[in-house]
Design brief:
The chain has 27 helices and 37 strands. By secondary structure, it is of the alpha/beta class.
């Protein structure tokens, strides 16, 4: 027995041995490290920042990850990264829940048919798999989208065994866009779209604010274009599609058409462009095919011809416009036709080379196409050794489960046992991206780096190192071309590749910055390609069924769950859908006329069946989906993956079969199953009607442009000057140092909910689960609720609602123990250890932004490692609410005091403000006359306070949403 010290003996016998026995994944601390001898480059109790790259979807946003005392606690956007410029979507915010997921796999598993799975060691796995490789057999590799070093290793590994069968599988591969640009320009690419330059965006069912290519980039571009800077014009967005999505609700004009008719609208616009002579490029060679399609369809019955003429004129005469093609996940001929006609619109209006850049294709251009996937899966047999990394075709692709089972050996590399991993013989747990070295290139010239932000939590390996080790053990070591470093580890491979691209002297600086993108800023001078005249032909219009029980299928991607890979994240399941405000599940959208014909009411259990499969989900009866169509969100309905995903909702991919019957996704049959669904719809906003209270206010652009700074609605400021002895019940408040306040620009808000998820992450807000939310026990401090425009119920906008930090706060005087109190800097503080849970403060709050802890939430290990040490973890029986991230305020104040200076305007950013992709929030000090928050509060003519007539004197000022004047 090894010698142990008296301290270690007491530690073991004091109960720590029990903790280790009951929680084996936790590492035993062998010795304490006193602060007088700290670890190298680490200061205990201080924050460290690591720059890395988000890999939650193919967009490739830059991230800053905050690290303290051996663990990471918060992910934020990298302000210098050209993809996202500091913003981060809800999926990026939730990356920490992927790192700390309790369902994450921690051990190597082996499954043999007919026997229970067994835990194995890495040595046993490497020995068995390399022996199988050495014995022969065909190698095939299927991976999620990769670029850079890992892509090189995957291709090199396959080539070492005489194979070129490496495919990057993405459920959303944007194939129609690639096929369209290949047919027209000979370039099968997903272009770079410069929405930041556009004064008109026309989306043909492309939900670019949610999951289409790079939503954070597009959200910032759209918000910047719609920001009011004086004048009489703003950039406009028009949406053509069958369903009111979050993107469609953000449009200035929503033109609803049945699924598949988007291409008819695009063809009609092209015909108008040709007839009127507005084309800037020669597209006359396409006239016969365009006119044939328009003649077959006839006039678009849902959109007046004058509207299309005006839209076409504006599209052609604008300084910069762009047309975008969707819908996401559609791969049918109808979707390709739509993308082809949209590409022709961009070409005819002279937008190729201006707002559509084919010379800098997105990384999604390398994702596998349908023909390649069909050949890959069909060719699998018992002679194949199939390696699958971080992708889940068994869940998202029709027939893939049976085809994967044909392979002789399936090795799955991943972090969770999803539906595809359950089919594998070997499961090899890999590092999560926040633990790993790597690189990613979303666009040419943007060389983003991944680096470990903490030590490995479990006995995992880097995927690149696994392939390098297997090649070495079979006598076929890999090395980068020209490096001569045979068998090097993957971290070395990443560094060698990066240095060869941007220079050996830039590594340290690039690691601190998160990558190198200087070359991406160099303007492209590639000549504008000329469309190749070819015989165009379009698929015939699908025959619409007259039967009430049949409808066209519309699938859409949730901004939270993407293609389903993130469905086990509690933050994302509990984040409401932006438009319906439903959570923890999905549903079937059905038009009222079709619902009435079938006797279906809201909440009924409905079954959809197609040639590929069927699903059941509760019905939502709404005119937001076109008549003759049914819409279902993708991403739910898992039978594996983890406890938050398993059994929640229905799998919409089950209705798709790769091939359709001449429509976008195919048709389906509708059947009512029961008058009440066991999975009831859970709305967290009971009404989106404002009931004529003008909670979310609009102002016409024509009226706003005639107003001067300082005009508009007078405000009672939360300052001593706002004190009125004749109306105020409480004494005047004086502030000597700061009076913190916030401005929320409703014009920029797109409703994505990233701020709400960031608030969860920053402030240790617990996930309470489906049933408790249904019981009204949600804990969100910040809600981004949708409201309908009073005179146009089909139009929606969003109101980010948090504690208003009122100067005359109704919550404070009713607390019997002074738990709700006003501090010296204007914050409505909540003293948790005083609170006795009377909930008087919640009853008295007119904004209903306080949350009561009904139960003690158990933070299941290792989710507790994500908790922010600067924020109290609340217990049952206390009230909690937004604090303006007081911990960030105090940190900035201490830093300024140590440096002997004043706090700079904009230096403090609450979590919601820091993460917002659209830059909706402005935070600052009202006592600073030059602060941006002061100037907006005092001078912006759009300013107003929520429920101003209550005289609560809120510190949150809203800026009205602008009603952009529709042209024509």
């Amino acid at each position: 027995m090894p010698d142990i010290s008296r301290r270690t003996f007491l530690w073991l016998t004091g109960g720590s041995s029990i903790a280790i026995a009951t929680n084996p994944p936790r590492k035993m601390v062998i010795k304490l490290i006193p602060h007088v001898t700290p670890l190298e480059n680490v200061r205990p109790g201080s924050w460290q920042l690591y720059a890395t790259t988000c890999r939650e979807c193919p967009a490739g946003c830059g991230m800053h990850v905050w690290h303290r005392d051996g663990r990471v606690t918060k992910a934020e956007g990298n302000p210098e990264h050209p993809v996202n410029r500091g913003g981060l979507c809800p999926r990026g915010q939730a990356s920490l829940q992927g790192l700390y997921d309790p369902d994450r796999m921690q051990r190597v598993l082996y499954r043999e048919k007919g026997r229970p799975e067994q835990q194995q060691s890495w040595e046993e796995a490497f020995a068995a798999i390399s022996a199988r490789l050495a014995a022969g057999g065909r190698v095939a590799v299927l991976s999620s989208l990769q670029s850079g070093a890992l892509a090189e290793v995957l291709h090199g590994f396959a080539a070492a065994f005489g194979s070129d069968r490496v495919l990057f599988y993405e459920a959303f591969n944007h194939e129609p866009v690639k096929a369209a640009h290949q047919q027209l320009f000979g370039r099968p690419v997903v272009p770079t779209y410069h929405l930041e330059q556009c004064d008109l965006i026309v989306s043909f069912a492309a939900d670019f604010l949610e999951s289409w290519i790079s939503p954070v980039t597009f959200a910032r571009a759209l918000a910047d274009g719609r920001t009011y800077r004086g004048g009489t014009s703003l950039s406009r967005m028009v949406y053509v599609g069958p369903r009111l999505s979050m993107t469609a609700a953000n449009a200035d004009q929503y033109l609803q058409v049945p699924p598949g008719w988007e291409r008819v609208v695009a063809a009609t616009m092209l015909k108008i462009m040709l007839d009127q002579g507005w084309a800037r490029q020669d597209i006359s060679w396409a006239r016969p095919a365009i006119e044939a399609l328009v003649a077959e369809a006839g006039p678009v019955p849902w959109i007046p011809q004058d509207t299309l003429v005006q839209l076409t004129r504006e599209f052609c005469t604008s300084h910069a416009s762009v047309a975008l093609s969707g819908p996401l996940a559609a791969t049918s001929q109808l979707a390709t036709d739509t993308a082809l006609l949209v590409a022709l619109l961009n070409y005819g209006a002279g937008r190729i080379g201006q707002t559509v850049d084919l010379s800098r294709p997105h990384a999604l251009s390398a994702s596998a196409r349908e023909a390649e996937l069909e050949l890959f899966f069909a060719s699998l047999d018992r002679n194949d050794l199939l390696f699958i990394y971080d992708t889940n075709p068994a869940y998202s692709r029709f027939g893939a489960k049976a085809q994967l089972a044909k392979a002789g050996l399936v090795v799955y590399l991943g972090t969770q046992v999803d539906e595809t991993a359950e089919l594998a013989h070997w499961f090899l747990p890999v590092d999560y991206p926040l633990e790993a070295w790597g690189d990613y290139e979303p666009n040419p010239g943007i060389h983003s780096l991944l680096q470990p932000t903490l030590s490995r939590l479990y006995d995992t390996r880097a995927p690149g190192d696994i392939f390098l080790e297997l090649a070495r053990r079979t006598g076929r070591p890999l090395s980068r071309a020209g490096s001569g470093n045979s068998g090097a580890n993957f971290a070395t491979w990443v560094r060698e590749r990066f240095s060869s691209l941007v220079g050996h002297d830039t590594w340290d600086a690039a690691l601190a910055a998160g990558g190198d993108w200087k070359s991406a800023a160099v303007p492209s001078h590639t000549p504008v390609p000329v469309a190749r005249p070819a015989a165009l032909s379009f698929a015939p219009l699908p025959q619409r069924s007259r039967n009430a029980d049949q409808a066209e299928l519309v699938l859409w991607s949730s901004i939270m769950l993407y293609d389903g890979r993130l469905a086990n994240r509690g933050w994302l399941q509990e984040a409401p859908d932006p438009l319906t405000f439903f959570l923890w599940g999905n549903w079937i959208d059905l038009h009222p006329k079709q619902a009435a014909a079938l006797g279906i009411s809201e909440g009924d259990l409905v079954e959809l069946s197609s040639a590929a499969g069927k699903l059941r989900a509760p019905a939502r009866v709404t005119a937001e989906v076109s008549e003759g169509a049914v819409a279902v969100a993708m991403g739910q309905g898992h039978w594996a993956l983890g406890r938050n995903a398993r059994g929640i909702g229905a799998n919409a991919f089950a209705l798709t079969g790769g091939r359709t019957d001449g429509s976008l996704f195919g048709s389906c049959r509708i059947r009512k199953v029961a008058s009440a669904s066991p999975e009831t719809l859970i709305p967290t906003a009971l009404s989106q009607d404002q009931h004529q209270r003008e909670i979310l206010k609009w102002v016409p652009l024509s009226k706003l442009s005639a107003m001067q700074p300082g005009e508009g609605e007078p405000l009672i400021l939360p300052l001593p000057e706002g004190y009125r002895p004749d109306k105020d019940m409480y004494p005047k408040r004086e502030y000597t140092t700061h009076r913190w306040a916030m401005v929320i620009d409703l014009q920029r808000c797109i409703g994505c909910g990233a701020c709400s998820v960031a608030c969860y992450a920053e402030n240790n807000i617990p996930v309470v689960g489906r049933q408790r939310v249904a019981d009204g026990r949600e804990m969100a401090w910040l809600r981004v609720a949708p409201y309908r425009k009073s005179d146009q119920p089909g139009r929606a906008s969003w109101l980010p609602l948090l504690c208003q930090h009122c100067d005359a706060a109704p919550c404070e005087p009713v607390c019997p123990v002074f738990a709700a109190m006003h501090n010296e800097e204007g914050l409505n503080a909540q003293i948790y250890n005083r609170c006795i849970g009377t909930r008087y403060c919640s009853n008295n709050c007119p904004y209903k932004v306080r949350r009561f802890n009904w139960v003690n939430i158990r933070w299941q290990a290792p989710l507790d490692l994500q908790l922010n040490p600067e924020v109290t973890v609340r217990s049952r029986g206390v009230m909690e609410k937004c604090t303006f991230c007081v911990q960030r305020i105090r940190l900035a104040e201490y830093q300024a005091q140590r440096e002997g200076r004043k706090i700079k305007d904009g230096e403090i950013q609450p979590a919601c403000a820091q993460s917002c992709p659209a830059r909706v929030f402005t935070f600052g000090d009202l006592l600073d006359p030059d602060a941006r928050v002061t100037l907006l509060t005092r001078l912006d003519p759009r300013r107003y306070h929520l429920l101003e007539d209550l005289n609560t004197k809120p510190a949150v000022t809203f800026l009205r949403r602008i009603e952009n004047d529709v042209k024509g």
